[in-house]
Amino acid sequence: MPNPHIEQWYLADPRGLQQVLEVGSIPVAPPYECERGRYKQALRDAIRQTDIIAPLGGLEYGPDIAEVLDLYTVGKVDAGFKHFLASFHSA
Fold this sequence. Notes:
Layout: H1 6-12, H2 14-21, H3 38-48, H4 62-68, H5 71-77, H6 79-90
């Protein structure tokens, strides 16, 4: 499971997120913090740059974002994802 938020994984590959959301500028992930809602808000902010209506705050685009994520990039940015990926490959 993501530690602490799956939105952090989405934001760890800004080019993938840009591709899915078709935003003009590349969203920047906030520095790691465990503040509640920080990454959800950053994802919502990225979506606000588009004409997309996202009643779930962007989570409805999770499968689309996951399809284009550069796993290597996300693993470099987020140690929790790197561990998740290593565990997945081991299984």
